[in-house]
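pls ignore typos typing on phone
iron/sulfur cluster + seq
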Amino acid sequence: MSEVWAERIASLYDMMQRCTLCPRRCGVDRLKGESGVCGIGADAVVSSYGPHFGEESVLVGRCGSGTIFFAGCNLKCVFCQNYDISHLRRGGVVTTGELAGMMLRLAERGCHNINLVTPTHQVARIAEALSIARGMGLEVPVVYNCGGYESVDVLKLLEGFVDIYMPDIKYGDNEPGKKYSGVSDYWDRCREAVREMHRQVGDLQVSSQPIGAGQTVSLATKGLLVRHLVMPNNIARTDKVLEFLANEISKDTYVNIMSQYRPEWQASRFPELNRRITHAEYVEAFRKAEQLGLHRFAD
Ligand code: SF4
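k done
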């Protein structure tokens, strides 16, 4: 491990002692086993790992995206689509060595990347594991697949660790973040984070790569890939999210405008959230994106 990496990993562990790994800044000593809002203490907790074929095609290629699902979450979305992992924290404790082993096994199985799902609150362990795995020959790109509520200080420490940032921008306003995810400053922190991500890695780079027998596949190698889930009644403020991307990040931002919202977890308590989106709502989101000059959309 290089000295620079070692220092950065040590800084991430320091942040766990009065936890400021995310903007909630709970201040608990996680290295002593205390836990804050995310519910995870000192150890990494993994729910599952394996090749995943349901991600964006530029991540899946032919052999799948090597996903590792981390238990717990720093957001408390009432409509969480993975509530058993994020809210109920289904998973098992793993050592950093075991986590590095998972990364290496995914790469050995041919996965085109290591896709860290909900990594924010476990990022110190992840960075250490990644450093071990890189030292043992891991070469595929690393995807930071997060909820967009990130600390810029942490992101700065990850520069060079992460190849592809994939924030799920949930809302284009603070108000719905407060009401539905339990944080008062989602949009403020998310915009800062996405700017930093883009500064580090730029727009998504996709290249054609050989996969044997004379065949090639288009794969993401580096950059920013933004997800945005359209919600009923424009609760996500999709127009604001798209305006931010087009006007303040880049019109070449690669965006996945997602239509699969369904009322999960506690969404039925909120009448305005308690339905799927209509076709018209989805078409309107796309129309807005194109109107703003965005033109790179995930399939
Ligand atoms: S990572 Fe967890 S404990 Fe740390 S500040 Fe965020 S929610 Fe709190």
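Residues 195 and 249 are 7 Å apart (CA to CA). Strands lie at 44-52, 65-70, 92-94, 114-117, 142-146, 164-167, 205-212, 215-229, 254-258, 296-297. more later
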